[in-house]
Write a structure and sequence with these properties.
Number of helices: 10
Structural class: mainly alpha
Mean pLDDT: 90
Helix content: over 70%
Shape: globular
Distance between the termini: 30 Å
Low-confidence stretches: none
Radius of gyration: 17 Å
Length: 255
Amino acid sequence: MLEAILLGIVQGLTEFFPVSSTAHLILFPWFFGWSGVVNTLTFDIALHTGTLTALLFCFWRDWTALFLKKKKILGMIALASIPAGVAGFFLNDVAEKYLRNPFLISMMLVAVGIIMLASEKAKKYKDMEKTDVLDALTIGIAQAIAIIPGVSRSGITISAGLSRGLKREESARFSFLLSTPIIAGATMLHLKKLFSAQENYDLQLFALGLITSSLTGFLAIKFLLNFFKKCPLHVFVFYRFLLAIVIIINIWLRG
């Protein structure tokens, strides 16, 4: 039960902080030797459902405006969602079986950290209303790459937005809005597995993780929307590099 709550907190924070929530959900059980349902992709999806509720609560006004007034942006979000939707549908099993590897995670933490640093050097002049098809496709393809643990959906999509000239806070808002349909899609994809009669999941455990990730996710979004108005991505890059070093040291000690 404590493991579920801790992982809910980790998910709620790291889903939106550009440090890779999937990587942390894999690494915590690996670091501490946790096993069982909390160390499965299906439990990860339950935690992602919690952050989905946080997104909907934070951005319901934005979504209302998108459907009623800002249909161009809605179209850009829909277009940007396609690459990740395709990647998730066809590569989900590959990700679950072959990519949940600490060494791969450490490499992705460093690689995307470098991309994040480089993106901060781009000229930032666009508001979200000025996004075009190429912007949407660039950010959408970046989001598809985030199926690899360690990449970070928010990290790589914010970086892609920055590279296309979006202002940092606008890129973050677009990234958060874009994450809503992909998290919803992933949740729907796994509902059948989650409630399968052949699986004996502890629904109370799942509920604890979901509620905790929802509350912490809400706080994380509110914090980051203010943070990115003033501050660059650098602090998160340094954290990514430090975490990669910790992973490599652990691999070496266990070898």
